[in-house]
Amino acid sequence: MHNPAGIRSYNYRQDTAIIKTKWQWFLLAAALIVIVGVVPFAFSSYALYLGVKWVILIIAALGLNILVGRTGLISVAHAAFVAVGGYTSALLVSKLSLPFLVALPCAGLMAGLIGILFGLPSLRIKGLYLLAATLAAQFIITYVINNLTSLTGGYSGTVVPHASIGGFILDSNQKFYFVVVAVLIIMTILATNLNRNRLGRAFIAIKSNDKVAEGLGVNLWKYQLLSFFIACFFAGVAGSLWAHWQGGIMTMEGFTLWSSIWYFGYIIVGGLGSVVGVFAGVIFVEGAREILNSIINRIGASQPAVLANIAPSGDILFGVILIVFLIWEARGISHRWEMFKSYYRLWPFSYSL
Amino acid sequence: MRRIMTKVMVVLLILLVVAVSPLLACGKKKAVEEQPIIIGSLTDLSGVVPAQGREASAGELDAVRYINEVQGGIGGVQVELITKDIKYNSTLGTQAYADLQSTYGSRLRAVVSFITPGLLPNKDSFVADKVIGFGSADPLSELPFDQYWTFSSICFYNVAFDAATTYLIDHWSGSGKPVVGLVATTVNAAKVISGGIKSACDREGVTYLAKLGDPTALDRTVDLTTLKDAGANIVFLILSESGVIKALKDSRQMGLNATFAGLKSYATASFATAAGSDGEGMYCVIDTASWEETDVEGIQFLRDWNAEWHPEVTFRSPQYILSFVDVLTVAEAMRRAIDKVGYSKLDGDAIKEALEGMTDWNPMSLMAPLKFGPDRHSGGTAVRLCQLQSGQWKAATDWLTTRELSGQELTLSYYQGL
Questions:
Q1: In a 3-state reduction of DSSP, which class is residue B370?
Q2: pLDDT tens readout for residues B126-138
Q3: Which helix (H) or strand (E) holds A115?
Q4: B396 assigned to some structural domain
Q5: What is the CATH number of domain A21-352?
Q6: Cβ <8 Å between B53 and A159
Q7: Nearest-CA distance from A275 to chain B in Å?
Q8: Model pTM score
Q9: B185 touches chain A (CB under 8 A)
């Protein structure tokens, strides 16, 4: 990674630091003040609704990014793992009356353990074959949840109470916003640190060439399953947040194969392997969908009779935008962001590039 | 290079606008005074049941036009319908409601929706925001009546299909007692329906065979074969529209010559066309008058209304009529509330109280008289059967009065445990 002009690292600790300049610390502090001190009070409830939803999607996508972007494995069952976390948390809180803050990590652990189970085939197969195996995971988890009626409520779903912390009930987007942001910060630090330690380097080695990595002493069995566990842990935590945020009913409706594919879309558009890319991917994809829906709804509000005819066009147009975007910048938004930063650091001496 | 970077900066700025604009676009609420009353509609125009959604939207829009142009609004205040396509998805349902609430605030007086994802996930929010939710068929959206702000103009499915089953058994023309069957999915509504059919069969001493299967499974020939072998004479089909059409065709091919019956959502022109001769004689349990009943005041009005505004339309489904009634009912509650407290003091409590006071509401005779109360948010009192005859849906019975819900049927846990 290029450092800003004049910034040098004198030891390994400094070299691997995430934040290296006072300016970066200042920006971080300013961003935190805006995110925690301004956004929840200045923005409308709908904006906060979108904010909470996007944050939860980012947490889940961070997990998939570790599996796909960092380790080079593949999974099209990520939404199902999010559902495992959601149902685990919902049942722990509603049936066992456990506190939300206890259920939250438990949801991650349960999803992680289930993830290890379905990650076992990765020891023998990879690529498209692993994709097929995880596809089976999506269907199996969906089937089990939908048919384990006594526990999950089946297709009718299970009632999920609002999350509460110390008797403080998180029954609004504003209240829940603080919780999801706190969890996002923790999960982002975890995901970012993965890029800087032995575990993260083992993942990258496996992604680069698993046979060579094994030859260098990386235990494939251990690290591939760890990758599945961590990815699904992130998914489980996101599922727990999702279940209690919706605060009403939990069904498999929002965790279909289609949802899993969307998670893939987020990290591909954002840029595989990049934490910043996950943020950018979710915000770009969901933001674009929101704008398209907003345009369609505005047309529908002024000409209601037309709405029925144009309603499906949002999905079609969005698909076209995604295709065009991927052709134009296949390495994702994060790559463009890196280019921009490089240019900015050297500006106005752009010829130096 | 600089030119490239300038382009990159422009793209990044666009991305920033993309990300932030929806957040800023919905930030400010408009003034409440002298603004139209907002009724939200959470519908399905591009999801699981878009054909039904189009009919529902048309009915709601025509009702609003009728209220504004014929009735002069509600207490002189115009009504605006804001429709959101939620694609039969609960998450989009909550998102759309949050958008409505954020944009219109206290001007949003009611939300109508003919699908469960429009009301069930929002039932707590309706209570918190004091907004009427109207139009669901799923008991989970409404119960317990004294705790939620969700209403419907129809009967619960269990008592509706109890009445319909009783009628079909009583008018069975074969020898001996018929055997009743059900091919349905395991979704909650189907279980509620199954409970209603079973109670009628138990009362009549008739054998009942229920086959509940995965909602995603289109092929139900195994279940149909089982029913044929059991000698089923009356078979209820509670599946997706395409699933029912396939089941009808499969049944004819395998020689299962039973009387078929199903939901009101099948009583559309497109279903009649798709089912063809295989659907001939099929019944649907409906809550409204039928489009062919020109002697009904409301039907004649709607036919004239459609001739004027939608000359291309030759048939309207029960969902269109039901959605028309839903909006009229909500508007009537608002009108009564305004009469009582005045427009300036109109709030959710006043509308809810007025709605719960409507004990004999019969809009244009399009439905049997609706009866609401603090302990009765399901207003329907009767259903009827329509039948596909010569490719057209026609009323087959008069109103079949439904029994009142009682005991466990009034509790949420009963329906959750089905």
A1: strand
A2: 999 999 999 877 7
A3: helix A100-119
A4: yes
A5: 1.10.3470
A6: no
A7: 17
A8: 0.81
A9: yes
Range of the domain at B394: 157-286+383-416
Residue B16 lies in a domain: no
pLDDT digits (tens, 9 = 90+) for A147-201: 888 888 887 788 888 889 988 888 888 999 999 999 999 999 999 998 788 999 9
Tokens of B18: 């993309």
Burial of B221 (0-12, 13-18, 19+ CB in 10 A): middle
CA distance A157 to chain B (A): 9
Task: Provide the β-strand partners of residue B110.
Answer: B39, B132
Q: Is the peptide bond before A105 cis (omega within 30 degrees of 0)?
A: no
Please name the residues between 145 and 184 in chain B that touch chain A, using a CB distance below 8 Å: none
Question: Does residue B26 lie in a domain region?
Answer: no
Q: CA–CA distance from B263 to each of A286, A310, B266, B272, B396 (Å)?
A: 36, 28, 6, 13, 14
- B328 and B403 assigned to the same domain: no
At CA A306, angle to CA B154 and CA B314, rounded to 5?
Answer: 60
DSSP-based three-state secondary structure for A164: strand
A158's enclosing H/E stretch is: strand A158-159
- Which residue on chain A is closest to B1 by alpha carbon? A350
In 3D space, the residue among A12, A297, A103, A58 whose CA is nearest the CA of residue B99 turns out to be A297
Say if residue A127's pLDDT is above 70: yes
Domain CATH code at residue B361 = 3.40.50.2300
Give the whole-number percent of chain A exceeding pLDDT 90.
Answer: 46
Contacts of A27 (CB under 8 A, 6+ apart): none
What does the pLDDT look like over B189-240, one tens digit per residue?
A: 888 999 999 999 999 999 999 998 877 777 889 999 999 999 999 999 999 8
Q: Are B217 and B326 members of one domain?
A: no
> From the CB of residue A151, how many other CB atoms can be counted at a distance below 10 Å?
12
Kindly write down the DSSP assignment for every residue of A269-291, as one continuous string: HH-TT-HHHHHHHHHHHHHHHHH
In chain A, what residues touch B82 (CB-CB under 8 Å)? 297, 301
Within 10 Å of residue A19's Cβ, how many Cβ atoms?
10
The answer to whether residues B169 and B250 belong to one domain is: yes
Of residues B26, B46, B123, nearest to A47 (C-beta): B26
Asked if residue B22 lies in contact with residue A53, where contact means CB atoms within 8 angstroms, the answer is no
Q: Is B313 left (phi over 0), alpha (psi -120 to 50) or beta?
A: beta
Give the integer Cα–Cα distance in Å for B188 and B200. 19
Residue B28: pLDDT over 50 = no
pLDDT of residue A303: 77
DSSP state of A67: I
Asked whether residue B180 is assigned to any structural domain, the reply reads yes
Asked if the model's pLDDT at residue B279 lies above 60, the reply is: yes
Question: How far away is chain A from the Cα of B20, in angstroms, using its nearest Cα?
Answer: 8
Structure tokens at A149: 């009626």
Question: A15-24, A68-77, A132-141, A344-353 — which is least confidently predicted?
Answer: A344-353
Contacts of A62 (CB under 8 A, 6+ apart): A187, A188, A191, A234, A275, A278
Quick one: average pLDDT of A296-321?
78
Using CA atoms, how far apart are residues A152 and A148, in angstroms rounded to an integer? 6
- Number of structural domains (chain B) is 2
Instruction: State how far the alpha carbon of A143 is from the alpha carbons of A148, A252, A256, A259, B70, in Å.
Output: 8, 10, 11, 16, 52
List of chain B residues whose C-beta atoms are within 8 Å of the C-beta of residue A153: 416
Mean pLDDT of B142-167: 94
How far, in whole angstroms, is CA A94 from its chain's centroid? 26
Interface touch B15/A50, C-beta < 8 Å: no
